[in-house]
Structures are given as C-alpha cells and as structure tokens.
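Entry 14. Ran structure prediction on the chain below.
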Amino acid sequence: MQELIIEPGRAELHYWRDLWRFRELLYFLSQRDILVRYKQTVIGVAWAVLRPILTAAVFVVFRHMTKTANRGVPDAILVFAALLPWLFFSNSLTEASNSLIGNANLISKIYFPRVLIPASSVVTSLVDFLITLLLLAALMASYQFAPGWEILALPALTVLTFALSIGIGLLLAALNVEYRDFRYIVPFIVQFGLFVSPIAFQTGSVPTKWRFIYSLNPLVGIIDGFRWAILRGQTPIDPLAFGLSILITCLFLAFGLWYFRRTERSFADVI
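Output, structure tokens:
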C-alpha cells in the first residue's frame, strides 16, 4: 500500500502527481453524476433527447419566418450541427459552475485535487453530447445527407470545445465559491450566449465591420468548424473567427486553471 502524507506545502509540491493518483476519482464522480441525472429523474434520458429537438425546432421556425437563405443544406441539419457544440458547452458550464457547491461535504472532509470535481461535470456532459450526435446522425440519414471527409475533423473540434468548457468551468466554479451571486449570473451568460452565437444564422451574415468583435465569442469559430465538418464543407470557416477561438480557448484554459489553483486552498474554509 502506498503511503500518503498530508502536511503543509506537500500538496502543492505534488499536486499534479496527486492528480494522476486520484484519476479513478474522476471516473467515479462522473459515474455518480450520470446515474443521478438519468436514473433518479422522472423522464431520465428523454430530457437529453427532447431538449435539442425542441431547441432546434424553435430555430428552424425562426429561419422560415425570416426567410433566411438555405444554400442547399436542410435547415434542420444546419441548426442541429450548430447546437451540437453549443449544448455541450452550455451543459458543461452550468454543471461545472455549481459542482463545488454541490460537493461541499466532500471538499470539507478529505483531501484530493479539487479540479477533478468540475472536470467530472464536463465529462458527464459528454453523454448528452453523444446523444445529440446520435440524433444528428439519424436526422442526416432521414434527409439522406451523408458527411464527407471533413467529418474527420470532428474529434479535434470536440476536444477544442471540451478545453473551452473546462477553462471557463474552472473559473466560474472558483468564483461561485467566493461570490455566491455568480449562481444567478451563469444562467444569464448561457441564455445570452445562445442568441449571440451563430445557431439560427451563419457567421457570414454578420456585417464585415462587426466581424472581428463578433468573433471574440470563442463559440463562433467552434460552431463554424462543426458545421464545416458535418455539412461536407458547404458552410465556410472564417479563418479569423476560428483562429480567435483557438487563442481564446487557450487563454481561458490557462487563466481558469491558474485562478482555480490560486483559490483552491481556501475552498474548504469558504464553502
């Protein structure tokens, strides 16, 4: 049996080694959250199916009402391809921001790298992502719309979305412990982000003079990338928007991890 010594300064010195040693905890936390979400609910997995379908239906109706140009791609697939990364990101953000508060008893009793808690929330959101992906595959099959070689970029785009979710999730989780009013800010951020992301429309519809400012939303390049990969390259990627998405994701990941580590030692006292 490996000896574990807890003393001042030691946790900081061996933090990343401890993160690897406690890797199984990430699995158990994720498994627990999945069971709670899908087994101890009234409608269970049906919610993960109904939410993207109903959201997509609203945006498809909006596109028909505004007579938005189609360009040969069915509206349902165009919208669903954009909802795929957005729902993954929004679910991750909501769950990760509240994860530390929801595990207050665990944090105050034992030692382990606290970063595993918000990370498990993002991993849990991958289940919803996979369900939405299967729905999209069924929708494309019904329209007989087969993907092309561009679909090979989908795993890399998923990793990019995962990194953005982890970065912002860590930041909001730490802020939510210190400032409890952040629990009211996060739903607003999610709702606002839904309407300023290119889901019901495409980035090319944004006037050129506002394109740079609009592309500071990191989800713009990510959504464009998902559409390009899924829709056989029929929807172009703005190189500026995609480059900014990668840069901003890296910045959020670095800053979120730094801020989380900076405040982590006081979680047990504050929470």
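The chain has a mean pLDDT of 85. Will compare against last week's run tomorrow.
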